[in-house]
Amino acid sequence: MVYHGGEKRQNTGDGWDGVCYEQAVVVESQLAMVHHVIPFCTTLSNLVAQASMSVITEVRISPDDFELGRILKVEEASAIELETLVPSGDVTVPLFWVYEPVEDGFFDTVERYPTVNSVTEVDVFEDRTLVRLDWNASQDHFFQCILDHEGQILSATGTADRWDFEIRFPDRESLSQSRDCCEDAHISLDIIRVYNPTGPEAGPWYGLSEPQREALTLAIRMGYYDIPRGCTTEELADELGISDQAATERLRRAIGTFGRHALLTPESET
């Protein structure tokens, strides 16, 4: 008995029909197994790729818990924003903006710290001052926990009572090791968010296909999402040259794709 055109046919006269039947059952079972294994393998490969790609974390820390926070904790400044951070050996030279007019006491306070070599004004504006700080970061355990595990500071803003950092690590293991390092140094971190940047497979448009991007862009330009609506799905469909139902489905898939790539973190998807 063999399969042909979706039917079972029995061969007679040579005694091999039972063998063919058994082989057919085996093949059928294997196909069923493949049907279940493929989604599992796809999920597993996605998890492996996710674990090996870079990860970005947003953390909050008290100024009292790290050296630079203590150095720059001055009441005269309403906010401090890191412009750039250039490590050079044991010396790390940050440029940062100090908002509100900077009083003379600010520089005196900063220069009193033994790890500070110098602090100078780079640019002065009415509401902010760009300051350069020559500073030895080797005594700052927070920065060492970042740098020792290949972390890269993308942004940092500070006020009198807190600092917010955005840090990129090469993978989640490096992030975990950096957090363990901070715990060992008794540094209290508030993890605000952890996420993977958009993967290369998402392309420059957050995973949107060209038809999806065209439909979503047109919908926005025609005011489909305005209140009240500036157009109907029928009008969108006419512009796109597709049916009303196809336009609705394309927009739905476009929004779902964009949301997954632009908004969801790996943790929120589980």
Verbal overview:
The protein has 270 residues and is α+β, with helices and mostly antiparallel strands. The chain folds into three domains: 2-51; 55-195, no CATH class; 200-269. It is built from nine helices and ten strands. The strands form two sheets. The chain has an eight-stranded antiparallel sheet. A hairpin with a 4-residue loop joins strand 8 (152-158) and strand 9. Helix 4 (141-147) packs antiparallel against helix 5, helix 6 (210-221) crosses helix 8 (244-262) and helix 7 packs across helix 8.
Low-confidence stretches: 1-16, 18-51, 265-270
**Main structural class:** alpha+beta
In order across it, which strands form the biggest sheet? 6-7-5-4-8-9-3-10
**Could you tell me how far the N terminus lies from the C terminus, measured between alpha carbons in angstroms?**
47 Å
> Average pLDDT value?
76
Overall radius of gyration? 30 Å
Number of helical stretches of at least 4 residues: 9
Helical content stands at 40-55%
Q: What's the β-strand tally?
A: 10
Q: What is the overall shape?
A: elongated
| Succession of helices and strands | EEHEHEEHEEHEEHEHHHH
Q: How many structural units, i.e. domains? A: 3
Beta percentage is 25-35%
